[in-house]
């Protein structure tokens, strides 16, 4: 998650200016998660900030969104990066993506303000399936499908076995439980194929169905309950 200076985080709650926050910090009136912070402390959205014993963290209900990311949008909270996902969505509360989806790729990504569920999902070893539809630059062979499914050597490892199905001459469906950097593109490249389009259509129990490109919807109560059940044994922290 994005780290920010403590004085900036305090000012964003509307409690006081950054300069005023600096003074409060110097006077020892500020605590982060119940402890007096060191000079230069940075915080995340999940840290609890208090002044004179009063919590000032902006109270917002937990937000869980399923967003259909278009090609060209970067999954970062760094606002100085052109085309970042935060500026694109313009959600009225502070949110951040769970995981990532490459800039040249399209499809489903989760957005939230709940740091606990971010860590649980990213650490979850089981049931964290991600499903994609991928188009490549030349005809798909049975050998390609077999090798993709059995594991491909990339990034000093061999990818886990996964489910791969041919859709048509140049398009296939793949379900991963790993999250290696640009994994599908690297796997295809190793086998001599170039990815033309890549679209994530499902994460865990939530599908992209019904969400138009560039739009989002909130999780249903049932979807959220199912996700919490899937990741209940996952550690909350890294």
Write the layout of secondary structure elements.
Elements: E1 4-5, H1 6-12, H2 18-26, E2 30-32, E3 42-43, E4 49-51, E5 54-55, E6 64-69, H3 85-89, E7 96-98, E8 106-112, H4 115-123, E9 130-136, H5 142-150, E10 153-154, E11 157-158, E12 163-168, E13 171-176, H6 183-190, E14 195-203, E15 206-207, E16 216-218, H7 221-230
Parallel strand pairs: 8-14
Antiparallel strand pairs: 1-3, 2-4, 4-5, 6-8, 6-16, 7-8, 9-13, 9-14, 10-11, 12-13, 14-15
Helix pairs in contact: 1-2
- CATH topology of the largest domain: the name is Alpha-Beta Plaits
User: CATH homologous superfamily of the largest domain - what is it?
Assistant: Pseudouridine synthase I, catalytic domain, N-terminal subdomain
Helix content: 10-25%
Order of helices and strands: EHHEEEEEHEEHEHEEEEHEEEH
How many DSSP-defined strands? 16
Indicate the mean pLDDT: 89
**Overall shape:** elongated
Radius of gyration: 21 Å
User: What fraction strand?
Assistant: 25-35%
Name the structural class: alpha+beta
Largest beta-sheet characterization: 9 strands, mixed
Question: How far apart lie the N and C ends?
Answer: 11 Å
Unreliable residue runs: none
Under CATH at level 1, the class of the largest domain stands as Alpha Beta
The total tally of domains equals 3
Total helices: the number is 7
Q: What is the architecture of the largest domain at the second tier of CATH?
A: 2-Layer Sandwich
């Amino acid at each position: 998650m994005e780290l920010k200076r403590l004085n900036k985080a305090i000012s964003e709650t509307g409690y006081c200016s950054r300069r005023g926050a600096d003074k409060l910090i110097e006077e020892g009136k500020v605590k982060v998660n119940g402890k007096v912070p060191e000079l230069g402390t940075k915080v995340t959205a999940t840290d609890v900030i208090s002044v004179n014993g009063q919590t000032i963290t902006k109270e917002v209900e937990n937000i869980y969104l399923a967003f259909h990311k278009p090609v060209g949008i970067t999954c970062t909270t760094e606002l100085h990066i052109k085309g970042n996902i935060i500026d694109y969505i313009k959600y009225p509360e502070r949110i951040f993506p769970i995981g990532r989806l490459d800039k040249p790729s399209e499809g489903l990504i989760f957005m939230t303000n709940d740091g606990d569920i971010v860590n649980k999902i990213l650490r979850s070893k089981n049931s964290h399936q991600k499903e994609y539809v991928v188009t490549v630059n030349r005809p798909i062979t049975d050998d390609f499908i077999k090798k993709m499914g059995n594991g491909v050597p990339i990034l000093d490892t061999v990818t886990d076995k996964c489910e791969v199905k041919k859709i048509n001459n140049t398009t296939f469906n793949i379900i991963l439980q790993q999250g290696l950097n640009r994994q599908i593109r690297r796997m295809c490249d190793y086998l001599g194929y170039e990815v033309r389009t890549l679209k994530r259509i499902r994460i865990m129990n939530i599908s992209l169905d019904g969400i138009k490109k560039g739009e989002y919807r909130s999780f249903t109560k049932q979807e959220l309950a199912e996700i919490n059940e899937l990741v209940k044994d996952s550690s909350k922290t890294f």
